[in-house]
Write a structure and sequence with these properties.
Layout (H helix, E strand, L loop, with lengths): L3 E3 L9 E4 L2 H10 L7 E6 L4 E11 L7 E11 L7 E6 L3 H14 L3 E5 L16 H15 L6 E5 L2 H12 L4 E5 L15 E5 L7 H9 L3 E3 L8 H13 L1
Parallel strand pairs: 1-3, 6-7, 6-10, 7-8, 9-10, 9-11
Antiparallel strand pairs: 2-5, 3-4, 4-5
Helix pairs in contact: 2-3, 2-6
Length: 244
Amino acid sequence: MNLLLLNQTDFINDELAIIRDARRCEHLLNIQKITTGDQLKAGKLNGLMGRAEIIQINSLGNSSNSKEIHLRCNFIQLPPTPISLTLVMALPRPKMFRRVVQTLSSLGIKSVYFIHSYRVEKSYWQSPFLQPEDVHHQLILGLEQSGDTSLPQVIFKKRFKPFVEDELPEIINNRTALVAHPYTDLPCPNSLNQSLVLAIGPEGGFIPYEINLLEQQGFNSVHLGERILRVETVLPFLVGRLFG
């Protein structure tokens, strides 16, 4: 946790907040080993960042979930600038999904569409990891890691063709649209200074029909070289390449 994220419900007034949940209390007390008077890098979810001073630690029992931590906050700093990227990604395998959500959140991606495709098993859509509370938790972990307060928006689309034909044209309007595809001659550009829409397929990539449909809407297929990478590896690789 490189940034302590506070929710609106943590605040008792504009500058005083109380943390009572077990996860944050346990991390602050047992990992960071805070004491009264310590100052932490902190921020308000979807708000400003700054410093939070530990002014009181109350023990309500013997365990970390029976404690509360009082803080005095001074938030005057804007969060990091998000990257100008909308991500369109085929829904990954459930175990990979959590890691991908944390990664995209830590990278500064603020708009994400998880979509169905031919190589996405229908059972993936039944995963409990897709529940809003679990997605929210993974996004928060990514923000805490990278030191950001702006929560990404995650949208699920279970039907490929209607989404690509009916919604994507408006999303990519006046923007560069790229789809990662290992079987194309055009190499991926680098260090672009423009707003992008990036599509990433499932393991094995989009099938030819899906690539053709994306290209009909204005996407350009680009490759990353001779190696075919896992989705969780492709995402940070592409963001680093495209945004330098």
